Amino acid sequence: MRPFELTVPATVDEAVAGGHTFLAGGTTLVDLMKLDVVAPQRVADITALPFHGISTEDGLRIGALERMSDVAAHPGVPAAVTRALLLSASQQLRNMATIGGNLMQRTRCGYFRDITMPCNKRRPGSGCAALEGNNRMHAVLGTSRHCVATHASDLAVALVALDAELRITGPDGGRTVPLTDFYRTPGERPDIENDLGSGDLVTEIVIPYPELAANSTYVKIRDRQSYEFALCSVAAALDVRDGVVAEARIAAGGVGTIPWRLPGVEAALRGEPATEAAFTAAAEIATHGTTPLAHNGFKVPLLKRTLVRALLELTGGDER
């Protein structure tokens, strides 16, 4: 780890004006600093700033500095969010990591984390070693010739499905950004991963429609049952009335370069009976636009099966 200056800003204005890299739980940043993947010169510990609390008034509002374990245990948090958090990490990590930090975590692509290898996220213009390398864990949606790394956050997938919004403050004031617009696909600039500018801080996460989120789930498929990143995951919320899907929200993880919302699947489900046959037909749309690589083609059928499993779980059906 390279030397750096550590500060503890007393106010929000002091934090956003300092040109710092922000540190909260440190479960991602410290690891990357130890690996020399990132080497910030100035780090600001923001844990004392007033971005705490969970409120169910005017939608569900979660302070960005709330710990993952506390959010998972809150009775007002939708099942999709709770399950995503519980499946994300060990209890020890959940006790340390913050909600805002989880949404800001970097990819777990091995080539990104190995400074001896080319990676356009880490060193723009150096190339993407995963394209011709070991790409079993990599994305099949939202990729480009410059990057195929998946987004790591389970929580972000659940929140994207639930229409979550981020409250952001920075040197130019505050703003609200839908989480579906926050993350950026790699395109020509894999190093630009989200909508934050210099000094910007995520302060709060808002789920504006908790009534839809009330019937939600998160299904995660991984190589082992213990702490592991997703090969494929699906967050789903359904409003079923008289056996017919009135509304749906669907997002997928482990398969996209960002948490991947599936509006085509949502549209295909609306007005259809809540049956396995209808779910299976809608799941075909989920894989439109996929671009498998040499080792990750299995993710295409896996996404469809995971989606059907999640929808059956919400409707009490049995997967056959």
Q: Would you write up a description of this structure?
A:
Keywords: Oxidoreductase. Residues 1-212 form the FAD-binding PCMH-type domain. The chain has a domain at 212-315: 2-Layer Sandwich (Enolase-like, domain 1), CATH 3.30.390. Helices cover 27% and strands 20% of the residues. It is built from twelve helices and twelve strands. It has helices at residues 12-16, 29-34, 68-73, 79-86, 91-96, 99-103, 154-161, 179-182, 210-213, 263-269, 276-286, 299-315; strands at 5-7, 21-23, 42-45, 54-55, 60-63, 165-170, 173-178, 201-207, 216-221, 232-241, 244-253, 260-261. Strands 4-5-8-6-7 form a five-stranded antiparallel beta sheet. The chain has a four-stranded antiparallel beta sheet with strand order 9-10-11-12, sandwiched between helices. Helix 4 (79-86) packs antiparallel against helix 7 (154-161), helix 10 packs antiparallel against helix 11 and helix 11 (276-286) runs antiparallel to helix 12 (299-315).
